[in-house]
Specification:
alpha/beta, 7-stranded parallel beta sheet, 26 helices, globular
Length: 693
């Protein structure tokens, strides 16, 4: 049913109140809509912020219905609005399901647009040259490339999410997508038909634009570089899943130099040289010099374990020989300088060489930056991958950037080089005389463990924002239980993970699967996953034990949701990292969530160490003000996987007796939903039998 809403007359909060009232137009237009007091309260706060301007931070518990609570007032406002969420999957859900549903119900002639980062779109120029890349000789890559070539003839959006069967880890992706570094911009022969540019033009003309946090901060990071405008100027910006803003922003507001970037540059240099200027320069020798420095850089950390994150406080990262490190960086600068010199000789032949020269210059700038001392208020580290080394420098948080580059800085103009880069400001900050101040709204189910939501507001520079907490409408005391097992080894004990697996196996077997195991480390993930595959793989009562990393995330989730349906075996999913949040498995498919230990941040992580040192230098207690809030928020996120609907039932198990045995455990327990405590093994087994029945 459609209901045309008049945007004149009553104030925005009044119209929003009417929309959410029992018997209001939402209940008429949206199937199964049920008015919730918390949802209405959040919607009114959003409406007031849009009307008055300023910043609003809302923690809305699971089940509040926060998506409608921010969408309805934003659409009713008549303002141009920017919506940002955390992943491309959530972008697609918001744009493809929630927005069209409400736009139709409102009856407003709104133009909406979906905008992702350039890596989500097919690059026609890269596709045209993909067959000449040596990586295309691989049979699997060639098959995937053939599918892309067929799909490319029919697609209008170029959004790779439309291409069925293309895995997000596919090795064909670097061959058919562009990066900010290798995009040719306006001189590109495919510029007019470029899917990235067309998507950005749609966004600039739209009333409502849906983006993700990565794209937002990529835009912000280089807004002062003079590139063309990427995102539309709007007065209202709404960030869903805002708890990830700080870490996402730190990533993009910092600087990185990786051996992967060097190898990509060398490959593109060789391919362009042989194709467009063969014989004019010894391209294999120039490219080989760059490749050699990339490999030498990785070999400088050759004796260090894969997955290590090295502290970098001194001139050289921990564990790396100073002489070798300095010599490698010098060789890198020399190789890039030689590439620059040779590219100068052919720059007039093709735009490819101009862009490659710019890339060589940027690589030189980054190498020089990492060769000098780190600026104040930044932290440096090195990530050791199996085949790659990544050098990173980042601010400790985004507070200063938010205060000076979002909330205060006036809108600026972009250059007209046509290279639709991540640049220029995103929001009209209300600097025009008489204009209303812009509205910033940040929301998530988990933003802290105390009333001021300091865990979120402090690193994001939002201490002056209005803060609202809306509790979940779920009856956790009836729907969920919490159990902390006795008799397990201490979390620091090497045998803890194997003991956790042995504890889980009979419970998962009794439930017929329906179990999600969340681990705090990759080592625990491997140990628990392998142990459960051994323990539960016996014939007769065997279960499918799915382990993160063995299949793409999407396929793991699809299989787990299927469970024992259609005669298939029940499932246990063992996962870490990204599965702690954003995983929605309602109903009987998930009834037991097990967390291996309290999720304190890793103490030796360079970013954690730097944040702790800053707190201690300010006379604050780092455990109370950093470690505990971080653990509380992560625990809250993990626990949030259990109950997703009013009809769900389940048990949360935390295999760490510090939760009940240490004084600080009380603070962590308060962060969890008010679940019924199962104080004994017998009480747990009774609750398990009730679920199994």
């Amino acid at each position: 049913m459609s209901a045309c809403i008049d945007t004149g007359g009553p104030s925005l909060p009044e119209r929003v109140a009417d929309a959410f009232a029992p018997g209001g137009w939402l209940s008429q237009a949206a199937d199964q809509f049920l008015a919730r007091e918390g949802q209405t309260r959040m919607a009114l706060a959003v409406a007031e912020t849009i009307e008055q301007g300023g910043a609003l931070v809302v923690e809305a518990g699971t089940g509040v219905g926060k998506t409608f609570a921010y969408l309805v007032p934003a659409l009713l406002s008549g303002e141009r609005v920017l919506f940002s969420t955390v992943t491309k999957t959530l972008q697609d859900q918001l744009f493809g399901r929630d927005l069209p549903r409400l736009v139709e119900a409102l009856g407003l002639p709104l133009r909406t647009a979906l905008l992702k980062g350039r890596g989500s779109y097919l690059c026609l120029q890269r596709l045209a040259t993909a067959r000449s890349d040596p990586r295309a000789d691989d049979r699997a890559v060639a098959r995937a490339l053939a599918k892309v070539e067929v799909w490319a003839q029919a697609t209008t959006s170029g959004d790779l999410a439309e291409l069925p069967g293309l895995d997000e880890r596919s090795p064909v992706l670097p061959l058919i997508t562009s990066t900010r570094e290798n995009c040719l911009g306006a001189p590109c022969p495919h510029f007019r038909a470029c899917h990235v540019n067309l998507a950005r033009r749609d966004a600039l003309a739209a009333d409502v634009v849906v983006i993700n946090h990565h794209l937002f901060f990529a835009d912000l990071a280089v807004r002062e570089s003079g590139m063309a405008e990427l995102l539309p100027t709007v007065r209202t910006a709404i960030f869903d899943e805002a708890h990830q803003l700080n870490e996402t922003g730190v990533q993009f507001l910092g600087l990185q130099l990786s051996t992967g970037q060097l190898l990509d540059f060398a490959r593109d240099l060789l391919a362009a040289g042989l194709q467009l200027a063969r014989g004019l320069v010894d391209w294999p020798a120039v490219a080989a010099a760059v490749e050699r420095t990339a490999r030498d850089l990785r070999l400088a950390a050759g004796g260090l374990p894969v997955g290590a994150r090295l502290r970098w406080v001194d001139p050289v990262p921990d564990g790396i020989a100073p002489g070798e490190w300095a010599a490698t960086l010098l060789a890198l600068e020399q190789a890039c300088t030689e590439a620059q010199r040779q590219l100068d000789t052919v720059s007039e032949l093709a735009p490819d060489f101009v862009r490659l020269h710019e890339r060589a210059t940027e690589l030189l700038r980054r190498a020089a930056r990492f060769g000098a001392a780190a600026p104040l208020d930044t932290v440096r580290w090195v990530d050791v991958g199996s085949q790659q080394l990544r050098l990173s420098e980042a601010p400790l948080d985004i507070a200063q950037a938010v205060r000076t580059r979002l909330l205060a800085l006036p809108a600026g103009g972009g250059a007209a080089d046509g290279r639709a880069e991540e640049a220029d400001c995103v929001v009209d900050r209300g600097t025009v005389p008489g204009a209303r101040p812009c509205a910033w709204i940040f929301t998530s189910a988990t933003l802290g463990d105390e009333p001021t939501l300091r865990w979120f507001t402090e690193p994001c520079g939002l201490q002056d924002a209005r803060v609202l907490q809306v509790e979940s409408p779920f009856d956790y005391a009836t729907q969920a239980s919490l159990h902390v097992p006795d008799g397990l080894p201490r979390p620091s004990d090497p045998g803890h993970s194997a003991a956790v697996a042995r504890w889980i196996a009979p419970a998962a077997r009794q439930l017929g699967g329906r179990t999600l195991v969340l681990t705090t480390t990759l080592r625990a993930l491997r140990t628990i996953g392998e142990s459960l595959q051994s323990l539960l793989g016996e014939e007769g009562d065997a279960l499918d034990v799915l382990v993160q990393g063995q299949l793409p995330k999407r396929r793991l989730m699809e299989r787990f949701r299927e469970g024992a349906s259609q005669g298939r075996r029940g499932c246990v999913l063992v996962a870490s990292a990204s599965f702690w949040e954003g995983v929605d498995i309602p109903g009987d498919a998930l009834q037991l969530v097990v967390i291996d230990k309290l999720p304190f941040p890793p103490p030796h992580d360079p970013l954690v160490e730097a944040r702790v040192q800053r707190l201690e230098s300010a006379g604050r207690n780092a455990f109370r003000d950093f470690h505990l809030p971080e653990a509380a928020v992560a625990l809250k996120q993990g626990a949030g996987r259990l109950i997703r609907r009013e009809s769900d039932r389940g048990i949360l198990v935390v295999c760490d007796n510090r939760l009940t045995g240490m004084p600080y455990g009380k603070r962590l327990l308060r962060a969890l939903p008010p679940m019924r405590m199962l104080g004994s093994r017998q009480a747990f087994e009774e609750a398990l039998r009730a679920l199994a029945a």
